[in-house]
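Protocol step 4 of 6: structure prediction from sequence.
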Amino acid sequence: MGMEKINGGLSPRKVALLLKIGASDPKDTDQTSPEEARAELLRDRLANRLPADSLAVQQLLAHLGELYNTFSSASGESIERRLLDRGTEIDTLRRIKEYGAALSRSAQSTVEQETANVIYYGAIASVLIFHGRRITDFKLEDLQGAFTTLSGMPWLPPALAGHFKQAVQFCRQSRGQAERSRDE
């Protein structure tokens, strides 16, 4: 009788089979490649809305649970749309850059850090392309290298990869203009 309570009336063979399934290595059943994992996480992050600006608003909304989810979904466009929209204001892009930096600092894995860096550098690229300004102390040469690397990531959405390619062109042109100005 004691055994029936523990194993729910299953035969020892079925219990052994269940234990074997539960103990199997997740790597054996998970066929997701690292690129697919990166792409999926990046899609999720880019689909999010920028978090509320004020700590008080965040705390209030967090206490309201379901209403918070409804409100945050309805309040504005996704991060991806904001990154790719020429009309996004510099202050909003700065907030997205800070959000990407915070995600990167709190990352628990390489995949999380890489996707956070896409958001971080995406905001920097947007300000360069759309507003002709820098919101970072990185040199144009360093940014060009980062944008070149990012534009070649196979797991990036095509529009975002194209965005980084535009940023590479912007850096090249700006560096060329700076060199011509020094030569004159």
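Step 5 (inspection) to follow. The two ends are 95 Å apart (CA to CA).
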